[in-house]
Structures are given as structure tokens and as C-alpha cells.
Amino acid sequence: MNTVFSRQIQKLRKQKGITQEQLAVHLGISAQAVSKWENGSYPDGDLLPVIADFFGVSIDSLYGRGGAVSIF
């Protein structure tokens, strides 16, 4: 099931031109975790600021709020 979060993560990752593996290495997690996020699951809450900082967006924008990133 695709969620706003899953679409945002995938879009941001592709805009940055990195693979799931590269994102995972930066975050210190498995590539499988990134894949799960892009397919509808969510990361632990303590990773949200790290993810947002990596992409240079707000946590709200990861959830499609604030208009910083379009999902369409």
C-alpha cells in the first residue's frame, strides 16, 4: 500500500539520485528497511529528523504537509 510518506521518500531519493542502498548506508539501516518504507511502512520516529535533514526538508513535508514537496 502506497502512502504519502512512501511516495515522498521515493521521490526525494530519486531526486537526489541515490539508491535505496545508499540511503540506507547514510542512515545506518538496511536497504530492506528503505524498501519497506517505499512500500507503505514507516521508520522509527527517532529516524524522522535524520531523514528530513538528509533531504533538506521538514518532517511535515515527509508526510505531504507544508507544500515543500509535491507528490504528483
Reading the helices and strands in chain order gives: HHHHH
Task: Report on the biggest sheet.
Answer: none
Secondary structure class reads: mainly alpha
CATH architecture: Orthogonal Bundle
Mean pLDDT: 91
Our count of domains comes out at: 1
Shape: globular
Q: Roughly how many Å apart are the termini? A: 17 Å
The CATH topology comes to: 434 Repressor (Amino-terminal Domain)
Q: What is the share of helical residues?
A: 55-70%
- Which strand-content bin applies to the residues? under 5%
Over the alpha carbons, how many angstroms does the gyration radius reach?
11 Å
Instruction: Write the CATH homologous superfamily.
Output: lambda repressor-like DNA-binding domains
Q: How would you characterize the overall build of this protein?
A:
The chain is mainly alpha-helical. The chain has a single domain (4-62), classed as lambda repressor-like DNA-binding domains (434 Repressor (Amino-terminal Domain), Orthogonal Bundle), CATH 1.10.260. It is 57% helix and 0% strand. It contains five helices and no strands. It has helices spanning 4-16, 20-27, 31-38, 48-55, 59-62. The longest helix has 13 residues, at 4-16. The protein is globular and about 30 Å long. The relative contact order is 0.21.
Question: What is the compact description of this entry?
Answer:
This protein is an all-alpha fold and 72 residues long. It has helices at 4-16, 20-27, 31-38, 48-55, 59-62.
